[in-house]
Amino acid sequence: MPAIDWLTDTLGLPDAAARQIVEYLARARSALGALPTQQRLIMERFFDESGGTQLVIHSLFGSRINRAWGLALRKRFCRTFNFELQAAATEDAIIFSLSTSHSFPLDEVWRYLHANSAESVLVQALLDAPLFGVRWRWNATTALALPRMTGGRKVAPQLQRMKSEDLLASVFPDQVACLENIVGEREVPDHPLVGQTLDDCLHEAMDSEGWLALLRRIEAGDIELLARDLPAPSPLAMEVLGARPYAFLDDAPLEERRTQAVLNRRWTDPESADDLGALDVAAITAVGEEAWPQARNADELHEALTGLGCIAEAEAQADPQWPAWLNELARGGRATRMQVAQDRALWLPIERLALLQPIYPGARCEPALESLPGFDRPSSEDDALVELIRARLTGFGPLPVPLIARPLALPASAVALALTRLESEGYVLRGRFTPGAREDEWCERHLLARIHRYTVKRLRREIEPVERADFMRFLCDWQHLSESTRMQGRDALATVVEQLEGFQAAAGAWESDLLPARLKDYGGTWLDELCRSGRIVWTRLAGRIKASSGPVRGTPIVLLPRRQLAAWYALASEAPPPELPSRAQRVFETLQGQGALFFDELQQDARLLRGELEDALGELVAVGLVNADSFAGLRALLAPAAKRSRSTRQSRGGAFIGGMADAGRWALVRKGTPAPADSSARRPVLDPEALEHIALTLLRRYGVVFWRLLDREADWLPPWRELLRVYHRLEARGDIRGGRFVAGVPGEQFALPEAVALLREVRKRPPIGEMIAVSAVDPLNQVGTLLPGERVPAVPGNRILYRDGVPLALLIAGKPELLAELNEDDQRKARQLLAVARR
């Protein structure tokens, strides 16, 4: 991508930072339709949760010009609407917090200030800004008009502030006078201190001349002006929404800022607008019940009719008391029944009669009523329909267009146009919010925000954080390491391998430590059968540049489902071809030309001795270039050369050894099409589906994920920031849950729903003193990362002993180390567990 190339090559940014910048700006452009430059200004307006609006001007001219523009425009708004606004200005944006009474065409804001009169407006605005008082005290102190020291002691700041106000009252009375006694603009006196203060404010703190030049360019049409009404703030607006007090143009404190009422939707993921949809069904139902009126008598039903505009007869019959109350209102001349179709009728209050008559011009009303004075203002059909839909949506949760139109007996196309107008105002949001929805739904924005809050709050309240020791007990149960959860039988192997999908461990540790620890009666042929069936592939995912001499038991190997190979191979960034010894290169070329071959065929075609071929295959395995149909091939390579035999079929410690004859065919690893990447990229760009699969795989492995837990995973996994976007989207869809599951761990945490239930059970279950020994290459080696203590090197032979989730003893380089005081029986048991791999 040219943009990433320029950022990395010209500016020297890291590839990850360059990608973040490009993604951020791409999403901003998607939201605004363009990006602001010094030749283009963009204004956006969106609603906040208080019902007011926020107006943001994206101006890339620096804080000095933006501060001047913000103060002057704030004063113009104040004079126009008679309302004091909150405003802030940063290096690249200005924000104004408007109330519900501010209504105006957005394009008019560009013409609120004129270059010929703007400076006088700025001066008057400046007099009310905190900036003037600060600069006044500075100049007065510098001019020695205010004493810094009295009686050899420094004047307290609060006293100096009082003295400066007294001095200002004597030279500029209007500045501190009661505003009720001031008519028109305040007249600035010809005083050197006042003049110097204004000059400092206009030309040091601000750049008034540069701002006036910008206004002249706007008036001359030299700058492109864009205005956008958005349903939510754009990514570029996030910074100014969170502006710090030094950017404020008024004296309202941070906790009282209207910007705190903005519901920030996640723009970190381009799919978040669609995936905001699948919310909790219970939350949708609850908000729908809250929105629908609960009338207790005829008067309250009349108020409900006025708020909803009208109700269908079928809706009224859903409550057994409503038909009688509606008839009572009709007899009193307060409501009427309008027949809008042959089989449909609407009940409406007399106050809404003038609204519905343009929509249903030929409809008959019983009883016939006349519009009340003050409610009989004529309206066009389109405007009336917009107002009716606006009123109706206040009583419902998310609904598709047909369900909105059907009770009103209106064509769906007309209702869709009205909804589009409401969407442009920011009143409604569109999406697939109900789980399983197959068409777009529409919901009033405040009701939708409430549904989303209910969903997240309910899910996060379902579990309290557990201590890290309890979390380790949970992991032992989740990964089938505790005695009560260990699995049994060859059919269970697929479940264990699926949970360890993509986990990188030493080749010699899979059948000596990882699999037997999770399966009580693990048999050596089981993994061979799983590989030969085509379901599982063993390989090294990220090879080395230079091959080692012969196979090593520490070669990192992963077990992967064949159907997901493309997703995992996309993680490994393209590396230059490894440097192979001559024999390994000959075997590689043979397999490249002939395809998959059995060991004997490969020996014949490569013209190598048996021992030479085994060494060459070991070197190719070590760099991740070849694998075999069966795990027996790798197992044979791991055996010492003296013990390798074509017909070896023996069981050692429960693991089936096998020979090269049982390996099946040897072939080059099929890595598929590499993930798209730019020439300067250090990491490939993953397909969203592949990234989601990897994120879910980590969740299946641990049940609960957070950044610190993944510290022991391979370094070629996607960075946490990319996984975080996926987890946010999955949480918004309702597939997983976010919250605080493990106490004492910083950062966001996410869990599978079934893991939450097990966490709750583990927290309630009292410790039983169970000791569990795991290899240092196991995913549960969390000492020094999640758990306190020094890290245990993840090499075969090192072991960790847990008791009720707490590290009890270590075995490092053959030397046991106790981490707690134990009695003799416990010490003996600990040594036995550390020394012997559990079967």
Task: Give a verbal description of the structure.
This protein is an alpha+beta fold. Among the domains are: 1-31, no CATH class; 33-261, no CATH class; 281-462, Orthogonal Bundle (Arc Repressor Mutant, subunit A); 575-670, Winged helix-like DNA-binding domain superfamily/Winged helix DNA-binding domain (Arc Repressor Mutant, subunit A, Orthogonal Bundle), CATH 1.10.10. The protein is 42% helix and 14% strand. The protein has 33 helices and 29 strands. Strands 3-4-2-1-7 form a five-stranded mixed sheet. Strands 8-10-9-11 form a four-stranded antiparallel sheet. A four-stranded antiparallel sheet has the order 26-27-28-29. A hairpin with a 2-residue loop joins strand 20 and strand 21 (655-656). Helix 5 (130-142) packs across helix 8, helix 12 crosses helix 20 and helix 21 (468-478) packs across helix 32. The longest helix is centred in the N-terminal third of the chain and has 19 residues, at 63-81. The radius of gyration is 36 Å and the shape is globular. It starts with a helix and ends with a helix. The model is unreliable at 266-278 and 646-656 (pLDDT under 50). One of its GO terms (molecular function) is DNA binding. Pfam families: DEAD_assoc, WHD_3rd_Lhr, WHD_4th_Lhr. Residues 466-552, 689-767 form the Large helicase-related protein winged-helix domain. InterPro entries: ATP-dep_Helicase, Lhr-like_DEAD/DEAH_assoc, WH3_Lhr, WH4_Lhr. Residues 35-237 form the Lhr-like DEAD/H associated domain.
